[in-house]
Amino acid sequence: MHIVFVHRHGPGQFVHLARRLIADGWTATLICESLDRPVPGLRVLRYAGDTRQAGSAGGRPSVPYIEAGRKVADILHKLELNGHKPDIVMGHIGWGGMMFVKDALPDVPAIGFCEYYFQPQGGDVGFAPSDEMSLQQRQTMRLRNAIQLSTLDQLDAGISPTAWQKSRYPAEYRSKILVQHEGIDTTRARPDAMAGFRLPDGRHLTAGDPVVTFAARDLEPYRGFPQFMQAAALVARENPEARFVVAGGDGVSYGRAPSRGDTWRNRLLQETGLPPDRIHFLGQIPHKDLLSLFQVSAAHVYLTYPFVLSWSFLEAMACEAPVIASKTAPVQEVVRDGVNGRLVDFWDTKAIAAEVCSALTSPADRQAMRRAARRTVVARYELSACVLRLQALLSKLSNRSVQRQAGLGPVAGRRNVVTEWNRV
């Protein structure tokens, strides 16, 4: 079987599935603008990115996404002409790459990764009290959604990592979207009482040290970095032994950059007055080091707008780090307050600080929650189980395609595929 993955910065969410399929003898090709990590055996075909920024002032926000879709369709057409027609295509629908897949390969099953549907309320947009959307921003959001809906309308099925992310899409399309997380490797993300973490200054941290951790791809408001820093300043005054270790870059993954070319890290250090010698900024670190950090954490703070749930949060839970997380919709799908973690109001920095202080002074009180956190991840997000379910869907769709092309009898409709797969 030959599968083509489509992802702007791939393989992204498809990395684990690609590895599994290649190990099982599948041929796998990735069509992408850039490669975020290599996968042995994965053939990579790149297309040139559009230099115009989607949503830029005065521009046409849909143009870069439409162009990406055309480029992907051209590559798929050339694959077919050269005798490398795929048996199935699976790709992210958010950046336009999957928009014309069915025009290029109308008889090939296609599955879309449905990560996030923008709405003017109930999610990230308008969550901050200071948020005000301009008319142009609303138009940009609608155009981004229009590209997703045009894509999803053609596809055989969609995948959303969480039920909340699926719920963001219009009701008319939810029947073809399956809830399936890509998976967390709980054999790597696991507790280790003997773990250690060496700071850049040479200091060695071990389990039992008063270590407060925070991790995000980039340190920015979408992931609650300002609230963490404000809470950390309060904790520092209450607990002179507490040490704060932060993993994440100074770029912007979501939202906007601070004004005047500053970084959120520098701005929050100045605003909070948190002593620089009490906090360690690691930047973006290797994955194995991030897991070691979670293993020595005495209190892991995870804050997020109502938005896409981070892999790192589930990995921290799998490592049995005591989690203190925001009471926002994607987190509430995973965490039950007092059972497998503690939930706090995203904006209440005093409550965040109080929970951190409690975790540092009474670690034994959190042991049951820590064990329950790992059980939650193992039961619902364990990698091998998630990948097997995705593989079952791919096999079902590709087998039906073969039957249809061979004229071996009637083939059930798309909606039945979704219903049957939910019973797997």
UniProtKB/TrEMBL annotation:
<feature type="domain" description="Glycosyl transferase family 4">
    <location>
        <begin position="25"/>
        <end position="188"/>
    </location>
</feature>
<keyword id="KW-0808">Transferase</keyword>
<dbReference type="InterPro" id="IPR022623">
    <property type="entry name" value="Glyco_trans_4"/>
</dbReference>
<keyword id="KW-0328">Glycosyltransferase</keyword>
<dbReference type="InterPro" id="IPR001296">
    <property type="entry name" value="Glyco_trans_1"/>
</dbReference>
<dbReference type="Pfam" id="PF00534">
    <property type="entry name" value="Glycos_transf_1"/>
</dbReference>
<dbReference type="GO" id="GO:0009103">
    <property type="term" value="P:lipopolysaccharide biosynthetic process"/>
</dbReference>
<protein>
    <submittedName>
        <fullName>Putative glycosyltransferase EpsD</fullName>
        <ecNumber>2.4.-.-</ecNumber>
    </submittedName>
</protein>
<feature type="domain" description="Glycosyl transferase family 1">
    <location>
        <begin position="208"/>
        <end position="375"/>
    </location>
</feature>
<dbReference type="GO" id="GO:0016757">
    <property type="term" value="F:glycosyltransferase activity"/>
</dbReference>
<dbReference type="Pfam" id="PF12000">
    <property type="entry name" value="Glyco_trans_4_3"/>
</dbReference>
